[in-house]
Amino acid sequence: MVPRLDGTHAPKTPRKSSDELGSSLRAAVSALLLRSPEEKSGDSVHVVQLSVDAVIPAVHKLDTPAFVGSPKAGGKAVPRWLRERLLDPGFSNLSPKSGQPGPGNEELQVYQDGIVDLIAGLHLTHVTANQEYADVFCKLMPDLATLQLEHCGDVMAEFPLGGVLKIYRIVKAIDQAQAQGLADRNRTSFPFQMLDAEHIVVIQFPRRKLAFVFADPVVAQRFLLTLEVLIGHVQEEHAKPKRVQPLF
């Protein structure tokens, strides 16, 4: 039996509206086209605002090209059933604008590419509660509302996105001695020795946190923004009153 983490009765912090989530994604995609100085952390851990730095090549071999490539390079073919679900009224703020060339707005393309990648599954590095690192396979279930984690081919857990309390990104600075120690203690493909900082996306549930570490800040930011919009939509759907079907 796959364990499920049901947070439907847990108190939730106020979340952004669909328009605000769309604006955040739109601003992030615009920022991806600009170059800015590399993030400097100063202390060991910093919670950072939602911003994206310069588009740079991925150094983590588990980072997928769909998250790293330029949003102007053209996205993947999105199946009709999925496109219709992504562009229902809950996503009207991300719908393609009339009069613009191409399949749609850049922010919609980034979001759709992110969802397609999650459905196919991503090889990520998971940070456990005792600060160990493990390579996992993360995928979005067909209901578009549940994340499933697998390790060595076995299902670890399923996480319903309707129970998410918040999601955020932090930057954790590491020096060469720390990087070498992490590499020695953890059997993972994460390139500790190539970095001076870890970019961690944390998904908080009522009873636990789910954390993924990335080598590339742009990859981490796109992963976070895709999940933020998706989680907002899932929770809006759960909050809608259910229609009672007549018996005759």
Task: Note down, in words, how this protein is organized.
Residues 1-21 are annotated as: Disordered. With 248 residues, this protein is α+β, with helices and mostly antiparallel strands. The chain has one domain (18-71, 78-235): PH-domain like. It has six helices and eight strands. It has an eight-stranded antiparallel beta sheet with strand order 1-6-7-8-2-3-4-5. A hairpin with a 5-residue loop joins strand 3 and strand 4 (146-151). The radius of gyration is 18 Å and the shape is elongated.
Task: Provide tags for this entry.
elongated; alpha+beta; 248 residues; 6 helices; 21% strand; disordered N terminus; PH-domain like; eight-stranded antiparallel sheet
Amount of beta strand? 15-25%
Count every helix, treating DSSP H or I runs of 4 or more residues as helices: 6
The parts where pLDDT drops under 50 for at least 5 residues are 2-13, 28-75
Distance between the termini: 37 Å
CATH topology: PH-domain like
- Biggest sheet strand line-up: 1-6-7-8-2-3-4-5
CATH superfamily: Pleckstrin-homology domain (PH domain)/Phosphotyrosine-binding domain (PTB)
CATH architecture: Roll
Average pLDDT number: 68
- What overall form do the CA principal axes indicate? elongated
Helix content: 25-40%
Structural class: alpha+beta
Task: Please provide the count of β strands.
Answer: 8
Order of SSEs, N→C? HEHHHEEEEEHEEH
- Characterize the main sheet: 8 strands, antiparallel
Radius of gyration: 18 Å
* Name of the CATH first level: Mainly Beta
